[in-house]
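Same chain as my last thread, 153 residues:
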Amino acid sequence: MSDPSAMTLGHFQALSQQSLLSKKRVFERAAEAMGGALNLCSETIYRALLAREKLGSTAIGEGIAIPHCRINDCAVAAGCLVTLQEPIDFGSADGQDVDIIFVLLVPEEATEAHLKLLAALARSFSNAEVRERVRQTQDPEALKQLLVSGDAA
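reply #2:
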């Protein structure tokens, strides 16, 4: 991302090349992983992600979705990047199936930070080179650096 201060994630993890066949399975898998890593209830995360998605698709086009929600007991902004072996329908406005999902959790009170993180992620994923590198990279640390820097070079 062009403004490194815009994305301050207290926690990041990546689940590469997952075989998940629906949005619900993606949400379940991300909720389990994040709940375990952050000592939060995975069911609470799952239900919050589902509730947010019911308001409208979080797919932003070009095979990308950024499901996000606020979690009461979440102390820091947290991200879980999920890449899929096969793209799935996410209700994207461009009609393209999604194979890169960045699940974002933020503390309940983090309204401005939440919006800044979403904007920074959208900017990063708007770069075709970044999208391609994310699709090719499986190392979690390399993925984090790629997204934080937004640098596909």
